[in-house]
Amino acid sequence: MRTICHTIFIALVVILFFGSVAITGAAAREHDPVEEIRLTASNPVPDAQFGRSVAIAGDLVAVGEGGDGAVGAVYLYKRQGRTYVPEATLVSPDAAPDSYPEFGRTVAIQGDTVYVGARFAQAGDLERAGAVYIFRKHGHSWQFEDKIVSPAPEDEDNFGRALAVEGNMMVVTARKSSLEEGSAYIF
Asked: CB within 8 A of 6, min separation 6: which ones?
């Protein structure tokens, strides 16, 4: 009797297991397959490192190309249905000729505002101190609004190498600052 109950129990467990696998597999097949969407620069520049930084918020994607020795840019894409279309290309509003600020080395998005780090942007008389540029969408266009620099700028201190935004706060690093071997600033 005990052997029969044990056999019935094992048979029920096996039936339940394979039944749940079949149901799970059917549910998985009901979902759309994962689609690959490839974003590319509208005007690619050799060695610019498109994709060096990325950010996404809602239907907006920002892709930076601020690689080593590049002027840089940030490409914005807007979701339309199941694809993304180019929305705008952001460039440094004050990059000097023959300068390589690495604009787009970092990006962050919050609502209708895009924050762009350029670790070698000019700050005052310092040619490579770094900055964060703020762009905001007004109607259908993106406009430059502000440039944030370190309160204690130093040449090549990498201000804007990393940044994060949450609510009304922004944190920006200057990882090579001589102030205690690097700094992070909260704005």
From this structure: none
- Residues 145, 76 share a domain: yes
Query: Which tens digit of pLDDT belongs to each residue from 43-65?
Result: 767 666 777 899 999 999 999 98
The contacts of residue 69 (CB under 8 Å, 6+ apart) are 47, 100, 102
Tokens encoding 7: 């056999």
Query: Do 17 and 73 fall within a single domain?
Result: no
Range of the domain at 2: 1-31
Are both 11 and 94 inside the same structural domain? no
Does 37 map to a domain?
Answer: no
Write out the two tokens for 126: 């310092």
* Arithmetic mean of pLDDT over the chain: 81
Label residue 156 by pLDDT band (50, 70, 90): confident
Write the secondary structure of 16-50 as one string of H (helix), E (strand) and C (coil).
HHHHHHHHHHHHHHHCCCCCCCCCCCCCCCCCCCC
Q: Is the sign of the CA dihedral 97, 102, 104, 106 positive or negative?
A: negative
Q: How far apart are CA 165 and CA 39, in angstroms?
A: 24
**Cut 0.85: pTM above it:** no
Q: Please indicate, yes or no, whether residues 131 and 175 belong to a single structural domain of this protein.
A: yes
